[in-house]
Amino acid sequence: MALALAALAVVLVATPLVAMLWRVPWSTIGTLLGRAEVRTSLWLSLQCSVAATVLAAALGLPLAWALARWDFPARSVVRALVLLPMVMPPVVGGLALLLAFGRAGLLGQWLHKWFGVSLPYTAWAAVLSEAFVAMPFLVVTAEAGFKAVDRRQEEVARTLGNARFATFRRVTLPLAGSSVVAGLTLCWARALGEFGATITFAGDAPRTETMPLRVFLLFQHDPASAVAVSLLLLAVSAAVLVALRGRWWGAWR
Amino acid sequence: MIWGCGGACVPASGSAGRRFAPGRSPLVAALATVVVLASASCSSSGAGKPTSSAPPPAPSNASCRLGPPVAEPKAGAQGHIRVLAAASLTEAFHDLGSAFTARNPGARIDFSFGASSTLVAQLDAGAPGDVLATADTVTMAQAVAARSVEPPELFTCNGLALIVPKGNPRGLRSLTSLEQPGVRYVVCAEPVPCGRFARQALAKAHVKARPAGSEQDVKAVVAKVEVGEADAGIGYVTDAAGAPTKVEAVPLPASQQVLATYPIAVARSSGAHELATGFVAFVRSAAGRAILQRHGFRTS
User: Fold this and answer.
1) Spatial CB neighbours of B141, under 8 Å, sequence gap ≥ 6
2) How far is B19 from A57, CA to CA, in rounded Å?
C-alpha cells in the first residue's frame, strides 16, 4: 500500500514535467527563445538574481554566522523572523514589501520625500523582492555549515596569531565552504524563480519583467512561447538540483 | 586551504566529515544543457511569432451604435450560470445580476471578473463559463476564432478617463498633463483592452511620457492610484465607482477620447443555454441599458 502511494507521489510530480516536455514547440523553439522580449527578460533575470544573491550574501552570511556562534537571548525569535519569508506566501511578501518600501510605504515615503527615490517599477524592486524570499535559504544552509565547523580549529588559528576576520576567512569559511556554496546556489535559484513578490512589489514595467513574469505575460496571449520560456527555466532548475545533488539536505537535519 | 564538507554532507553525529570529490559529468551535462538553451535565446535572430491579434479598431469619437434594445426574456427562468466579464463591468454586472435574479428567483449567477484577454484564454482552455462579455471587439474576435462563443452582439460603450486620487491634487485634465515632471502614471498591459485603448489614445495625443508600469486589468490600475503608488492611471469613465471616496475619473477631452465597445456572447460550452441566452437578452434590453447608464456606461 505504502509502495503504491509512493509511486503515486512520483507520478504526481512527474506528470506536469512530462506534459511540459510533450508540449514544447521543438521545431520553433529557437525562434521563440530568440525574440527580443525573451532575451531582455533573460538578461534582466540574470542580473537581478545575481544582484539579489550578492545582497543576500552580504547581509545573510554575517547573520548566519551570528546565529551559529552567539547565544543571545532573542536568538530563536530572530531565526524564526528570518525564516518567515521562506514560509510566507510570496505574494504576501510582495504586498508587505510594497507597504514598507512603496512610494506611500512606511519607510518608502521617506525615501521618496527625501531622496526622490521610488522603488516600484524599477529593477531594484525586483532585486529586493528576490533577496527577501531567497535570503532565508542562504541563512539556513550557511548557519548549519558554520555550526558544524569544529571550534577547536578556529581556536588553534586564533592562538597562532590570526585576527578574527582572518580566522573566519582562512579557517571557518573554507571548512563551511560547501555549505555556503550550496546556500548561495539555492538562494540564486530561488531568486531567479521568484514571481509573486516581484509582480506585487516591483509591478510590471520594462525594467521588472524577469523570466517568471515573462512566462506569465506570454501565457496570456502566446502560450507556445510561454512553454518555450518555461522549458528554459525548468532546465535551469534541473541543473541546480544536479549541481547540489543532495548536499543541502544535510542543513535540514 | 583546508576544504571540507561543513555541515552539509556529514551525518548529525560526525564533525570533520569525509572529503569528497564532486562528480564532474552530471554537473557538466546539466550546465551544458542550460547554456545551449540560453544561447538559443541569445544568438537567434529576433524574428518571432507576431502577436496573434487583429489590428485594433481606429480610435473614434463616434457615438455608440447599438441598435434598438431587445425584448426582455420571460420571467421565471431557472438554472445556474457563470458569467465571465471584463473587470470594468464589475459593479454594473453585479447590479444586472441582482435585477435578473429578482425577475427570475430560480436562477443563480456567479461572476468572474478580470482582464478580457485572460478570460478569453481561460474559456478557450476549458474554464467553465456560460456568458462572456469583453471590453473590446478584438478579444471577442479571438474567442469567436477559437469557437468558444456563439456570434456576439454589442451591448454598451465606455469612454476613457484619467483615474486620479480624489480631489485631483495635481490638477490633471488631459493626457498632455501626464507630461508634467514627476507624474507617474500606469496603464493596463498591452493585450488587455484598456491597455490597447490607452496606448492608442496616448499615440493620438502625441504624449511622450511613457507609463511607469502595466497592470493586469483596469481594477489594478485603480488600485495603484488608490494606494498612492501612481499619480494617475488611464482607465474608463466608469472606474471610479469601485472606490468613490479614494479616486475620481476625469473624462478625457473629446479630441483625445477613444471609445470602447463591449460585446457579449453565449459560450458554446454552456450547460444552461436557455438561461445564458436569457441573461444576454436582459443585458441588451431597455431595463439592462438603464442599469448600465446608471453606472456611467454609454448606450448611445
Assistant:
1) B54
2) 25
Distance CA A225, CA A234 (A): 14
**What's CA B68's distance to the chain center, in Å?**
28
Q: Is the dihedral of CA A28, A33, A34, A36 positive or negative?
A: positive
State the nearest Cα–Cα gap between B178 and chain A, in angstroms. 17
Contact check, Cβ <8 Å, B51/A247: no
Residue-wise pLDDT tens for chain A (253 aa)?
899 999 999 999 999 999 999 988 888 888 888 888 899 999 999 999 999 999 999 999 999 999 998 888 899 999 999 999 999 999 999 999 999 999 989 999 999 999 988 999 999 999 999 999 999 999 999 999 999 988 888 889 889 988 888 888 888 888 888 899 999 999 999 999 999 999 999 999 989 999 999 998 888 778 888 999 999 998 888 888 888 776 655 544 4
Kindly report the number of other CB atoms within 10 A of residue B293's CB atom. Answer: 14
CA nearest neighbour of A178 among B178, B267, B22, B126: B22
Q: Name all contacts of A209-215 with Cβ < 8 Å and 24+ positions apart.
A: A209/A37, A209/A40, A209/A41, A209/A44, A210/A41, A210/A44, A210/A45, A210/A48, A210/A49, A210/A126, A211/A41, A211/A42, A211/A45, A212/A45, A213/A41, A214/A37, A214/A38, A214/A41
Which cell is B77 given?
427562468
For A53, how many CA atoms within 13 A lie in the half-sphere containing its CB? 20
Q: Between chains, do B5 and A178 touch, taking CB under 8 Å as contact?
A: yes
Average confidence (pLDDT) over B80-86:
96
Q: Report how far residue A24's alpha carbon sits from residue A19's, in angstroms, rounded to the nearest whole number.
A: 9
Is the Cβ of A221 closer than 8 Å to some Cβ of chain B?
A: yes
Contact: A178, B43; criterion CB under 8 Å: no
Joined together, the cell numbers standing for residue B157 give 460603450
Cell of A186: 539555492
With CB atoms and an 8 Å threshold, state whether B7 touches A148. yes
Query: At which residue does the C-alpha cell 471609445 appear?
Result: B259
pLDDT of residue B54: 41
Give the alpha-carbon dihedral of A86, A91, A97, A102, to 10 degrees.
170
Q: pLDDT: is A66 or B40 the higher one?
A: A66
**Is there a contact between A33 and B40 if contact means CB atoms under 8 Å apart?**
yes
CA distance A80 to chain B (A): 20
**Inter-chain CB pairs, A–B, below 8 Å:** 178
ipTM: 0.74
